[in-house]
Amino acid sequence: MNQVACTVLENRELAKGNFLLTLRVPRQFSKPAPGQFVHLRLSPEGDPLLRRPYSLEGFFERRGIRAVRIYYSVVGRGSRLLAAHPKGRELDLIGPLGIGFAPAPKKTAILVAGGRGVAPLLFLSRRLAEKKRRRVFLFGARSKNELYGVREVKGGRLHLATDDGSVGYEGSVLDLLEREWNEHGHTPQTAEIFTCGPHGLLHAISDFARARGARCEASLEGPMACAVGACRGCPIPLQPGADGERYPAMCVEGPVYDATAVDWERLP
Amino acid sequence: MTPARPVDLSVSIGTLRLRNPILIASGIIGYGKEYERLVDLETIGGIVTKTVTLLPRAGNPPPRVVETSAGMLNSIGIENPGLAGYLSEKVPLLRQLPCARIVSVEGEDVEEFQELVRGVDGSGVADAIEVNISCPNVGPHGLRYSTDAGMARDVMTAIRPLTSLPLIAKLTPNVTRIGEIAAACAEYGADAISVVNTFVGMAVDSRTRKPILGTVLGGLSGPAIKPLALAKAWECAQAVDIPIVGMGGIAKPVDAIEFLLVGCTAVEVGTAMFADPGLPAACVDGLVDYLRAAGADSVDSILGAMEVPAGRAPIRAGLPQRETAHESRRSGGNA
């Protein structure tokens, strides 16, 4: 982890209010793992006051140029400011931060993405492809134009779901997971689940995994102040008995965490 | 070109000599280790650790932080490993730090404060103890000790005989007359006063109609509170003759200088550091530049150097007109 200056290479609106940001990072930025994040300072003027954490969609290295990619939606002051950053603008970044996904070498990886939560799973999917691991990608969104990065999924099986039925299965990606699990005879010994998306969806997926005794890692999202484990501002609430009376910090013990241990009712 | 004259930035808090007056506030950088790749601790005066309590604390339920206009509300709830955890896990980390180590403690009652002071004194790595009698986020004792001069006196009286380390009483700004609390702490053994802890605040989500923080109320920090904090620091400086460590909303070097001008001997940088880990070092550089520009060779020359022009005086309802400690010092009183 380092604090580095990066440069906007591209800041493209993929769909209304949803952007793909490509940042050139210097050599001091170490190679990130899928699931790790960066903490971006959006203004040197102190407004917004805090940095914003963004999950990485990918890390690319070509002809000596290193870059990271981020998906973000315009939801508040910080992201509105980010959307106005033109190509060439310099940004202050701390990263890579946190703990990423830890897929087992011999198991089939079932990747379950909800909307913009697809970002770290695209990164994971590429990494699994490089290692020629068995994988299947299940991707749900509200409609066709919110299936960001779907073309980035290469190799392995891909199944889509949309709430409005504009493409793929009409309904929840959770249904796709259930069908995948049953039709392919997956077991906790042969497969594991990696997921990211709205916390309501992650809750349902973790219930699915727990009922079957399957390993399930979720990438969590929440406000952070320091992002290096010092301020204790980003607690992950755990199920009673999961790990005693303790709140792991999302920034250093997450953002990827055992989904079946999380108390989703208490996670905002 | 002649080389720049050296500027003496060192200041004293009781028997603790700091190489410069820029400290990092409690709750910001843990025990120093967490920020080792982002902050060069050799450049600053020292750090104040995350508060240590007698027993481990898991902290408060989420959400614990929310950004507000020019500020941050927090409700961490002093998540820490307790005194035993501090001694076994944190003391070895603190020993390696290349700056002063001020250990923050908070007890739920006088006996706990005593046990903590004994334990921290015995740990051998503390250069001073910040007595946190002002956290708004723990209950039910919460703010009692620094909203009541009598209770502040009880704590100070009980712990003063237990250590020769400098004791810095950290006060809450959530009181009407902070000078009276500061005076009680000074009279009963505090070597310094640090002000301010956070201001009690809240944030509401109009969409869900729910409070945003898990504990409804939290503590506000950041640039939003700087004018409020400056006033409290100034009030304390008027009320006591011991050093004041000022903090609250420092986001740029000139903010730190303002705290020194109103009578603080040192300052603590906090929330703004989350965005800018280089801020404490920038404050040191900015202070040197300021002193050079003023032709001063020592930071002493600006401590309390704010001058209130004749005819300007604060109007405080309910307070009788009286000569302040500051004025009596200037007029040749107890220096």
User: Class of chain B in CATH?
Assistant: Alpha Beta
What separation lies between the terminal Cα atoms of chain A? 27 Å
Question: What is the string of helix and strand elements of chain B?
Answer: EEEEEEHEHEHHEHEEEEEHEHEHHH
Instruction: Identify the CATH architecture of chain B.
Output: Alpha-Beta Barrel
Structure description:
By secondary structure, chain A is of the alpha/beta class. Chain A folds into two domains: 2-97, Elongation Factor Tu (Ef-tu), domain 3 (Beta Barrel), CATH 2.40.30; 108-266, Rossmann fold. Chain A has four helices and 14 strands. Chain A has helices at 77-83, 118-130, 173-183, 199-212, and strands at 2-15, 18-25, 37-41, 52-55, 58-62, 65-73, 90-97, 108-114, 135-141, 157-162, 169-170, 191-196, 216-219, 256-258. In chain A, the strands form two sheets. In chain A, strands 4-3-7-1-2-6-5 form a seven-stranded antiparallel β-sheet. The model of chain A has no long low-confidence stretch (mean pLDDT 95). Chain B is an alpha/beta fold. Chain B has one domain: Aldolase class I (TIM Barrel, Alpha-Beta Barrel). Chain B has ten helices and 16 strands. Chain B has helices spanning 82-95, 110-123, 144-147, 149-159, 178-187, 226-239, 253-261, 272-275, 279-293, 325-330; strands at 11-13, 16-18, 22-24, 46-48, 65-68, 71-74, 100-105, 128-132, 167-170, 192-195, 199-202, 204-205, 210-211, 217-221, 244-247, 266-269. In chain B, the strands form four sheets. Chain B has an eight-stranded parallel β-barrel, surrounded by five helices. In chain B, strand 9 (167-170), helix 5 and strand 10 form a beta-alpha-beta unit. In chain B, helix 4 packs parallel to helix 5. Chain B is globular, with a radius of gyration of 19 Å. The N and C termini of chain B lie far apart (40 Å). In chain B, 53% of the residues are buried. The model of chain B is unreliable at 328-335 (pLDDT under 50). Chain A binds chain B through residues 1-3, 41, 46-51, 94, 222-226, 228-237, 245-247, 266-268, and chain B through 27-30, 34-35, 37-38, 50, 58-67, 70-72, 74, 76, 79, 222-223, 251, 271-272, 274-278.
